[in-house]
Amino acid sequence: MIVYWSEEDQAYIAQVPELDSCMADGATYQEAVKNVEQVIAEWLEIAVELGRYVPGSKGRLLYA
Description:
Elements: E1 2-6, E2 11-15, E3 23-26, H1 29-50, E4 53-55, E5 61-63
Antiparallel strand pairs: 1-2, 2-3, 4-5
């Protein structure tokens, strides 16, 4: 997870590079992390439903 301040958005942005287009924002660092944790859960759920691969730990890929 990468968290940074965006001047343009005036918010913290949390990105998960291993999960395509998985990101969220928040007014605080903690809020951005909390929000992206929810987005991660939703991303994984949808990937499994669609039968797409899910990145695993240590670079392995898990297939749904």
